[in-house]
Amino acid sequence: MTTVIIDYGSGNLHSAQKAFEQAARAEGIATKILVTSDPEQVRKADRVVLPGVGAFADCRRGLDAVPGMIDAMKEFVFQSSRPFLGICVGMQLLAQRGLEYETSEGLGWITGDTVRIEPKDPALKIPHMGWNNLLRKHAHPLLENIPETLHAYFVHSYHLKAKNVSDIVATTDYGGELTALVARDTIAGTQFHPEKSQKLGLALIANFLRWAP
Amino acid sequence: MLKSRVIPCLDVKDGRVVKGVQFVDLVDAGDPVESALAYDAAGADELCFLDITASHEDRGILMDVVRRTAEACFMPLTVGGGVRTIEDIRNLLLAGADKVSIMTAAVNERSFVKQAAEKFGSQCIVVAIDAKRISSNNEPPRWEIFTHGGRRATGIDAIHYAQEVAALGAGELLLTSMDRDGTKSGYDIELTRAISDSVSVPVIASGGVGTLEHLVEGIRDGHASAVLAASIFHFGEFSIRQAKEALSAAGVAVRMD
Questions:
Q1: B157-182 pLDDT, tens per residue?
Q2: How far apart are CA B65 and CA B236, in angstroms?
Q3: Contacts of residue B121 in chain A, CB cutoff 8 Å?
Q4: In this predicted complex, what is the ipTM?
């Protein structure tokens, strides 16, 4: 099996790669973890991961700047039943639009926009930075066997406000509910960083590597 | 709910931990990677490396340390010390740092903060603020920014500066009281609260921790989002677990995973 992490100049690819390798090794899952900007490798992959840090529009431009990448991702997602995972801004890009600094187009795979966090309590700090709990909305293979007591590491000022509640697998509480994990068909995305979330993160990555939607 | 963070900080010089970490089971207490792994296992919420290597030419060693740490520790890592250029930030992020802390470069040229935040995103830009109290006892408190380990005054008001760098895109502030650093007499709580309450970004309290109660004060009274300490953890006086239990007992929500 080959798991591709898309390199489009955003995100801590080195950390992500090592976390995926570690999770695979710990669970005895045989997969090669390939970091690449080659759309052909995305087409051929068994699983694809889209990381992303920084601003939505910058990430979108970065993705657009890799010739053929978005087409390859669409082909991967819609012409097969192979799993796709977005992380942080990679998850936010699943939305229809991003409203950070400027309005930019998302991939539109999850209905909704990526909007600024507006906590009810104005004393709450932005970014939402640190360890928070996941509030599960419905069961999903990515959360299987992960104890509810474990925390996930978040660092973000925007979140994907999904329109369809059925797409929201988990939220997190920060002066109101923020979307933490979305999933639809073979597509999933985490607002938190599994590659930085110790036990919960490695367990979720292993679940993704085993996920057979 | 979001938990308050406990962050051990390691001073790294020429690729080695200074003021070595004294955990019983470390084979090489001077190896930053091994220390990082120990803190990872102990439940630290983040790690901070402060590079105090004198020469800028020896940065390659630090990069290697960061790279090896990121390969083994799946938790957030902040690296600071001697970060002067956009290229320095890029190299640290590529090596595996999640956040980069900048200090003197931001004091010298405020636009550097904006440039860095626009380039890499606010989430990875931490501005380190070293502040000293300059008011006398019968005056309302005032603090000034110092550089060069507290030796060089800048004439810049700390609260004003904190607001300025937050507005320019700093995603977090690492606030050290130079009056308290190394004294073990506790954080400058007035300073911590004054800064925390005047910015919308998270503040990490630093400088002066000697007891677990000091950590509690930093969060409860100083309104910090995270508490950083070095020697109380390194010398094995207290464990991360004990720190979290003390915070929890005082009503501060912490992660016990």
A1: 999 999 999 999 999 999 999 999 98
A2: 23
A3: 53-55, 58
A4: 0.93
